[in-house]
Design a protein that fits this description.
Length: 530
C-alpha cells in the first residue's frame, strides 16, 4: 500500500473553475503546474531566462508576472512539454476544463494552458469541500454513542418475483421518489431475512434522489447501519469522475457508516463520459436494484427491483466484471487492526518532496528514541518502542535525503494550565490511550526546536486553529492519512491520487496562510511557558 510516508502519486481532483472567493491567481496556477510536474525554480528560471528567485517570488505571490517581457506564453510552452503522464493530463483537464483530461498533443496543451494562465479569475474551489469533509470526520471521531435504532418494518415480497414463470419478474418504481421507495424496499427486505448479506453498490447517476430529502438520507443510513450491525458487509464503488465537491458530499454521507469497519470503498480509474449512467445495488444471493439514466435526467426513469435468482446472478456478474477494473479508494483502521495500520506507516521506502502534518500534539514521527522508550515502558507495550524507532528513523532519512517536512502544531494557551495531551495515535501504537506527563511534553517540544535548527527543510508552525482531535498527514505524491487522537481510535488512509492530493492542497493553503499571519515561533512559545 502506498502511504503517507511511503510511495505513490497523488494529484488534485478539482471542480470546474468558476469565479468566486477561492479563485486561482497566477501564483497558485504556477505553483500547481510546478508541483504536478515536479519542476524546480532553477529549472524553470533557466528555461524562461529568469532568475530562480524571481520565479520563487511569483510562485509565492509576492511578485506579479513581468509586464514588458513575454511570460505566460513561454510558460505554457514549457509545461506543455512536461505534462505527459495520465494522472497529469486527467488532473489538469479536470481543473482547467472541468471534465475529462487534457489532449495528448503538446501544441493543444500549450494553447489550453496559455488561455488558462491569461485568465486570472479561474477558480479551483478545493478548500471548502475538504474543510466540510474534515469537519464531518472530526464529528465521527468525537461521537462515541451508538447510532439510534429505528423500527424496521419487514417488507412484503408480494410484489417481488420468485423463481416462477407465472410471476412478474420485477417491481418497477419511477423517478427520484421511486428510487427512494425502492431502496427502502430493498434494504427492508434484507433486514426481514434476519441474516447477513454481502452488498455490492455502485452508482454514477445524479445524487439528487439522496440529497433532496434529508429525512430519507437519515433513514437510508440507519437501515444500512442496522444491516451492518447484523453482520452484513458493504462493498461500494465510488464515482471519482464527479467534480470534487460532489465527491466530498458523497463521501460525507458515508462517513457515519465507515465507523463500523464493515465498508470497503473502491473507485474505477477508467474515464467515463458521464452521459449514460447506471446504478447497480446487489445483495448477493437475494435481490438486485438497477436503474439507468442519461446525464442528470432521472425524472420518470425506471428503477427495477429483482428477486429472481438467475437475474440476480447476472447482475452479480456485471458488478464483478466492473469491480475487476477498480482499486481501493481508502481504508479505515481501528484498534482491532492496528498492526496492519502500523505496518502501512512503517514498511515503506524513503520519499522526497513536501510532507505536511497537521495535528493536535507533536507527531510520533518526531518522538526522540529515548523518550519513546520511556513512554513505551510506562505504557506496558514493549513493541511500541520498535514502531516508534522505525517511524523516527524514517523521518530522519527523509530530511537527510532532501525531503521537506512542515508540521502544523496546535498548542494550548500558554496562559492556562497545560491540559491533558494524548500522544498522537497512542491507542494504535500502545494499544490504549497514553497521555504525556508535563515534562515529557516539554521535552518533545524542545526536541522539535532542535530539529528545526538542525534541518532547514524541517519547519514547525504553531497555531490554535488546527482541527482539534484530528491528525492529518499528506504528501504531494503519496496517500493521505487522517486519524483521531481520542478513544476509540480510528484512521483513514486515502489512496486515490486525486482525492488524496485535495487534502495536500488544503494543507498547502493552510501553511501559506499561517506563514503570512504567524509570528510566534515554537522556541518563543517554550520560552514563555517555562
Amino acid at each position: 500500500m502506498r502511504n503517507k510516508w511511503g510511495h505513490g502519486q497523488g494529484l488534485a481532483h478539482s471542480k470546474k473553475a468558476k469565479k468566486g472567493k477561492n479563485s486561482m491567481n497566477i501564483s497558485e496556477k504556477l505553483d500547481l503546474l510546478m508541483n504536478i510536474t515536479s519542476t524546480k525554480n532553477i529549472a524553470l528560471g533557466k528555461a524562461l531566462s529568469f532568475d530562480p528567485s524571481y520565479i520563487s517570488r511569483i510562485r509565492s505571490g509576492s511578485r506579479g508576472i513581468p509586464k514588458n517581457v513575454p511570460f505566460t506564453k513561454p510558460l505554457a510552452s514549457f509545461f506543455a512539454g512536461h505534462i505527459k503522464a495520465d494522472y497529469q493530463l486527467e488532473t489538469l483537464g479536470t481543473i482547467i476544463l472541468g471534465v475529462g483530461r487534457l489532449p495528448d498533443n503538446p501544441k493543444d496543451i500549450e494553447d489550453i494552458l496559455y488561455k488558462w494562465l491569461e485568465n486570472d479569475d479561474i477558480k479551483a474551489g478545493n478548500a471548502e469541500p475538504v474543510k466540510d469533509l474534515l469537519s464531518d470526520i472530526t464529528t465521527l471521531f468525537n461521537t462515541k454513542s451508538a447510532p439510534v435504532d429505528i423500527p424496521i418494518v419487514p417488507a412484503s415480497d408480494e410484489d417481488i418475483s420468485h423463481d416462477s414463470a407465472q410471476t412478474v419478474p420485477a417491481s418497477v418504481y419511477y423517478g427520484n421518489q421511486g428510487k427512494r421507495d425502492s431502496v427502502i424496499k430493498f434494504l427492508s427486505s434484507l433486514l426481514s431475512a434476519k441474516k447477513p448479506f454481502q452488498l455490492c453498490l455502485y452508482s454514477d447517476e445524479d445524487m439528487s434522489w439522496l440529497s433532496e430529502k434529508p429525512e430519507f438520507a437519515r433513514e437510508w443510513a440507519l437501515l444500512l447501519m442496522q444491516l451492518m450491525k447484523s453482520g452484513s458487509r458493504i462493498q461500494i464503488i465510488h464515482t471519482i469522475s464527479r467534480d470534487l465537491s460532489e465527491i466530498m458530499e458523497a463521501i460525507r454521507k458515508w462517513i457515519p457508516l465507515y465507523s463500523t469497519g464493515a465498508i470497503e470503498p473502491y473507485y474505477c480509474p477508467r474515464l467515463r463520459d458521464g452521459i449514460y449512467r447506471r446504478s447497480l445495488f446487489v445483495a448477493r444471493g437475494h435481490s438486485a436494484l438497477v436503474s439507468t439514466s442519461v446525464e442528470t435526467g432521472t425524472d420518470s426513469m425506471a428503477n427495477l427491483l429483482f428477486r429472481n435468482s438467475q437475474i440476480v446472478a447476472s447482475f452479480e456478474k456485471e458488478y464483478d466484471n466492473y469491480f475487476a477494473l477498480c482499486r481501493p479508494l481508502m481504508k479505515m483502521y481501528t484498534k482491532q487492526n492496528r498492526k496492519s495500520f502500523l505496518a502501512a506507516l512503517t514498511d515503506n521506502p524513503t520519499l522526497g518532496g513536501q510532507y505536511f502534518l497537521s495535528h493536535p500534539g507533536p507527531s510520533v514521527w518526531s518522538l526522540p528514541p529515548e523518550l519513546a522508550e520511556k513512554i513505551a515502558v510506562r505504557s506496558g507495550c514493549a513493541d511500541a518502542a520498535l514502531y516508534l524507532k522505525k517511524m523516527h528513523s524514517h523521518m530522519l532519512d527523509i530530511l537527510n535525503n532532501g525531503g521537506k517536512i512542515t508540521e502544523i502544531l496546535y498548542i494550548p494557551d500558554k496562559n492556562k494550565p497545560l491540559p491533558q495531551i494524548n500522544i498522537l495515535l497512542s491507542e494504535m501504537i500502545f494499544g490504549s490511550m497514553v497521555a504525556y506527563v508535563e515534562d515529557e511534553y516539554i521535552s518533545h517540544l524542545k526536541y522539535l526546536c532542535e530539529l528545526t535548527e538542525k534541518y532547514e527543510n524541517y519547519k514547525v508552525l504553531i497555531t490554535n486553529v488546527t482541527p482539534q482531535g484530528m491528525a492529518l498527514l499528506s504528501h504531494s505524491d503519496a496517500d493521505t492519512v487522517i486519524a483521531n487522537s481520542s478513544s476509540p481510535s480510528a484512521a483513514f488512509i486515502i489512496s486515490h491520487q486525486q482525492f488524496s492530493y485535495a487534502f495536500y492542497e488544503y494543507l498547502d493553503r493552510l501553511v501559506k496562510e499561517l506563514q503570512k499571519k504567524s509570528h510566534l515561533t515554537l522556541r518563543q512559545y517554550l520560552s514563555d511557558v517555562m
